[in-house]
Sequence to fold (439 residues):
Amino acid sequence: MGRDSKDRRGEVVTQLHFAKKGEVTPAMRRVAERERLAPELVRDEVARGRLVIPANVRHTGLDPQGIGDAVTCKINTNIGGSPVRSCAAEELEKLELALSLGSDAVMDLTVGPHIREIRAALLARCPAPLGTVPIYEAMEQVSEPEELDPEALFDVIERQAEQGVDFMTVHAGLLAAHVPLAAKRLCGIVSRGGAILANWMMHHRRENPLYDQFDRLLGICRRHDVTLSLGDGLRPGCLADASDAAQFGELEVLGGLVRRCRAAEVQVMVEGPGHVPFDQIQMNMRKERELCDDAPFYILGPVVTDIAPGYDHITAAIGGAMGAFCGASMLCYVTPREHLGLPTLEDVRQGVIAFKIAAHAADVARGRPGARDRDDALSAARAAFDWERIFALSLDPERARKMHAESQARPEDVQAGYCSMCGPKHCAMKLSKAAAQKL
Fold:
C-alpha cells in the first residue's frame, strides 16, 4: 500500500495525520477509485474527520474502504465463535460468504477459549477492514467482570493492534454516573462490553479505565492506525428504552472523545443505537451529528419492533435503510437469529443481503454517484428476458437462479421469455412490447 503501510516506530502513521498534512495516500486513492470521487475530496473528508479509512499498517492484503458521509453506505458483518459453539473453520466459511455477498467490513466477536486462534485465521484471510472488541479477550483471562485488570485490557489492545486489527470497539463513554440511569430501564444494559464495565465500576467504585486512560489508548492507535469505534455500551435493547437519558448521556461523552481523537490524529467513528421506534430514527441520526461533530455513525439496525424473533434481519434492515438515508455511514447487519443464538451460515447470508438492500436503497435515494446503475442494468435485462444477466446483476445470484429454476414447470421454460408468475399468455412485459409495436 506504499508509504502509509510502513511501520515507523514512534511516528504517527494514521490516515488522519497524512490528510491533515495535505497528502493523498494510496489508501485514499483506492477509496476515491471505489467511490468515483476525486482523491483530494477523500483526503479533505478524512482531514475533517467526516470520513475514516480503517487500515492498520500491519494488516497485509487489505483493500481499503472508506466510511463516511461523502461515500456510499457500508455494511459490517459480525461473525465469531462462542463458548458453546466455536470453530475457526466455520467462521472462515462465514467470512468467505460475507465477502462474496459484498460485505464491506467484518467484526470478529468471538468469545470463548479459541478467541486468538479464530482472530488470527480471519485476519490472514480478510481483505476487508477487520474489527474486534478487545474487552472480550481480556474477559477470557478472568472469571467475573470485577476481576478484570485494566493493565491486562490495555495489553490486549496493544497485542491486537500489533496483529493488524483495523478498528476496535471500545466502550469508553460509559461512565459510572450512567449506570444508575440504565438500572431504570426495562432491559437494562444489553451490550456485553457495557455490562462488563458497569459491573467493574460498581464493584470497584472507580471510573471506566478506558475513559480514565483514554490518552494511553490514543497512543496505541497512533502507532498502528487503528480506527477507534466508540461503542454504545448503553444502546437501547428494546423500544421502551430508546432515546433515554442513559443513551444520550453516553453519546454526549462520546462527542468529547471524538474531539480528543481528532486532536491526537486518530481516526474515529461512533456506534449507534440498537432498538429505536421508526419515528425516532431521524432524530437519533441528527443528535449524533450535532454532539459528535459529524463523525461517521456506525449503527446496529436500528431494530424498529421487538415482536419478530427469527425475522430481526427484516426489522433491523427497515431501520437501517432509514438510518442510512438520514446520514448513517455504516450499518451493522442483524441476522434472523438475533436474540436467539449464534448465527449459522444461512443466517449470515440472509443478514448480509438484507443490509446490502438497506444500504443500497439509501444510496439510491441520496443520489450517490452511480448508485442506480446496477438497478437500471438489471431492469433492462428483465425487459429483455435475459435471465443470465439478471442473475449476474443480482445481490445473490445463486439464490435468484435457484428460485427461478424451481418455479418453472418444464426444463425448457427456464430460458423462456416469461416466468411462472404469468406464463406466456399473460406476461405483462410481452403484452406491453406487442402494444408498442402497434403504435
In short: The two ends are 58 Å apart (CA to CA).
